[in-house]
Amino acid sequence: MLQHAEAPLRQAGDGIAPGGADELTRLLFDGDDRERVHGEWRRLIAGEAFAHRPDLTPAERIALSYDRLRLVNDTVTGPAAEALSYDAHRLAALHEWTGFLDGGLCTLASIHYNLFLGSLLDHDGYRRDLSPYTAMERVGTFLCTELAHGNDVTSLETVARHDRDTGGFVLHTPHPGARKFMPNTSLAGGPKTAVVAARLFVEDEDQGIFLFLTPLSDAEGHLPGIRVHPLPDRTGTPVDHCLTSFDHVRLPREAMLEAAHGRLDKDGRLTSSLGNRRKRFLRSVGRVTMGKLCMSGGTLGMARAALSIAVRYSHHRKIGAPKAGERMPLSAHRSHHGRLLRAVATAYAMTFLHRSVVDRWAGHDPADPAEREEVERLIAIAKGWITWQARDITIEARERCGAQGLFPANGLSDLPLNVEGGITAEGDNLVIWVKAGSELVFAHEAGPARAPRGELGDLGFLRDLHACVERIWQNRARTALRGGPSGDPVGRWNETSGAALEMVAAHARVRAADALLAATARATAPRTRFLLEGVSRLFLLHELRPHTGDLLVAGHLTPAQVEALHGTTEGTVADLAPHLTALVDAFDLPAEYLAATPLANADYLDRFGS
Questions:
Q1: Which of 16, 293, 569, 577 is the most buried (most CB within 10 A)?
Q2: Spatial contact of 100 and 301, defined as CB atoms under 8 Å apart
Q3: pLDDT, tens only, 21-36
Q4: Distance between CA atoms of residues 349 and 523, nearest Å
């Protein structure tokens, strides 16, 4: 556990000692690149335009999200908007800082800048005039999944039939199940243009799925042949989700988005650098990978905001003390601050994992198929783990604020529902983890086979124990796969998938631990290192609890260590408890946002109902 001889960094509610919060914040927010990556977005959300607006109807909330999207665009118009689509760090950070204030804006920004504009740029975008989209004269949207085809997007049925006479295409929805499901295609927000995933037919030959630039509406309404049906309101912050179909819509030749993976020559012959239709499709919708980073970034910001509010409330909310006539803060109780501390430790691990994964994506070689596959798998694993943890954290934070947390003005009630959108968007978590699990069974060797003996307080030992958990589940998955029913691939995978998913979860924890420990090693101020070591220890100890039986059976832990785990964890919580507020102060939420959130302030009772 933490050494008690270390001078306390802060007591709850006191000011942090010099050097602690500043370095914690710098480490959390990309170090020397903090201002470039995060500064613009942090200042933007501190403005009056992002203040909470009570009593809006769903339609008014949708309109407000589009208004805010244009405020975002005012800072990045023109070439800067194109640059944003290519800058993984700034694009993900945009979602971190806007998601907890406006989940609808988070969704719209991901669609316009990443899925729409990013797809255009990835497909010979330099040949197009992008100014209507970078100036947001037209809002971009992305139409891929269909009512009958979600995760099985390679089975999409929308058709783009090549017209040899004109060189263009006829876009058509052949039946109701092929309607595009959930794109933001209403008239809200102004004129829109879509990138539409459709199956290309040349003559009667299926060439696979490509993207087609398709205007949907203008100032007068939807264009001829465009059929849009609003979907019912869903949970969370509203977005103008719709069902969209096409009735023999004619598109010009230049509507097809082309790149090396697929081009049509003047005679309608397809040339491609890739050998099959599935690979061509995956390359066409490659922006979904960056979308995973955007979604996990948005939910990450939601988790940190929820904790910042709940921790402040825990110090402001006074309850009866053991001595008659005295009052004490909720935060005095281990049953309260212990749960928040464990969530804070997880939020630190989530943040540093996200930073490390964005770095990998930004620095990978796209021409190296093996490296790209590895990084895409890591992004999928991180997205699943971060968004699931964010759901748990936002629920925990809301519950710790009691009934007060149910009121939207306090900034908590919408967050768990908005996280749910991130869990499903850009690849349903379970589905992308199943795919990752099928690859990780044999793609790498988890380990070590035997953790070196160590003490429960040793961070390296704790990290290796988590790696041993991954190896245990990998071995179980391999055994199940090899022993499954022959000639029945679904049956074999059914026997394997449970262990494979446990392996993926363990792999995510190991990667998060590695990122957290690497950040701890970068700390230079003693107080910063003191806090990060405590946070790392609490994260590793708490996450180890469900796996002690397996580790004991395998000989990685002794019975005495299993018995000591609870006490060691509680001791770590006790050491960190005086610094709970300091740890969330480092999340660096704008003072304007916190001042406008009733529960984050000592006078919250005076504001209630005012």
A1: 293
A2: yes
A3: 699 999 999 999 999 9
A4: 15
